[in-house]
Amino acid sequence: MPIESGSCASARQAKQKRKSHSLSIRRTNSSEQERAGLQRDMLEGQDSKLPSSVRNTLLELFGQIEREFENLYIENLELRREIDTLNERLAAEGQTIDGAELSKGQLKTKASHSTSQLSQKLKTTYKASTSKIVSSFKTTTSRAICQLVKEYVGHRDGIWDVSVAKTQPVVLGTASADHTALLWSIETGKCLAKYVGHVGSVNSIKFHPTEQVALTASGDQTAHIWRYIVQLPTPQPTADCNQMSGEDEVEFSDKDEPDGDGDGSSDCPTVRAPLTSLKSHQGVVIAADWLVGGKQAVTASWDRTANLYDVETSELVHSLTGHDQELTHCCTHPTQRLVVTSSRDTTFRLWDFRDPSIHSVNVFQGHTDTVTSAVFTVGDNVVSGSDDRTVKVWDLKNMRSPIATIRTDSAVNRINVCVGQRIIALPHDNRQVRLFDMSGVRLARLPRSNRQGHRRMVCCSAWSEDHPICNLFTCGFDRQAIGWNINIPALLQEK
Fold this sequence. Notes:
Helices cover 27% and strands 31% of the residues. The chain is an alpha+beta fold. It has a domain at 145-229 and 267-492: Methylamine Dehydrogenase, Chain H (7 Propeller). The model is unreliable at 1-5, 23-28, 96-104, 134-140 and 239-256 (pLDDT under 50).
């Protein structure tokens, strides 16, 4: 009688296992709908104070958990069969290899090594499955706390900066590489005004603290101060952008980016000339901001200087020198005459103008790569972000070392702090936006999937704490800005 070789037997066993696994999966899939319907019927017959939407969400989550563990159980059975088969084959080899028997010690060592490998594979499979379940819970929680409300589409190139007006009417402003700045209705997403006075990329936008005036910085080596007049449209009911089915994150190509003409920004009123042009720089003006009171403005440039101007006369008051490389950002204190500038030289500097007769400067060193931004918080703190993938919280009274350090997996762009709640929004090169508290504890990550979120690098974030609909805005190089509603009490409770 012919004897079946070991390789043929192993191949046949593997084929039978695959067939058995396939049948198990089909049986699982075929019974999912029936099981879900039965569970819903059971829930409907029970008294509960939970809303039906919450109950349905919980039911879907537990159904997912059951499916994950069912698949894990099937994989576990197959791994056990492989262990038994391997032990049998090793026992047979121990009697036939080179016509001599293996010693019990050798056989035990070999079997133990193979069993250990399979055991590690089982642990890895279990860890991956349970991690996916935990991730599902985190994703659902994140979506419940951080909801996408509105997308603002109309620019023809990437958006570098986003800002929210501090006076009525409250509008959203965006600065883009397409040489324009746009003003938006936060509620409807409609473009209300377009500024076209620059001949280079518009790198930042900031609103005057008390008037309907905007300050923009540009690659044309100037900063412009211009007035706008807008009338808010009547808000329309918006569709819920967060009814998602829980798909995994996917990669996007440039074809997936929004159409630059999507919201007809060319139809909105156009402002063509500034009230004042600030022209003292010899390089790209990368950022600009208003000092407290709005009578002076500060600009930061690639010519390695920051300039302080008198708004009414456009005269240069101070030229702030000392950085060794190009500046990347500038920010002013909300209540004091303080300015912080950041640079590619890995430092940021604090400039004090509280004494009119003299201004002092303090240098903060602690990053190992470009400092992309540094911003003030309430009190005596500054938060800095860097291309070295860290964010550091500093006490202005102690420049030697940060009081907290946040380490991330991607370069950090223009950060913003929710002053009232002391929450930091971190936009990243890898398209993520994460929220941390001032002590460095991670609170949430904004949802990003194949239906919502940024498709390319996120350049900037801006909080609007008092707006009832959107209290956080982000913009990116996918040519869109996004308005989010962050449930801050729930976010802090999760912490």
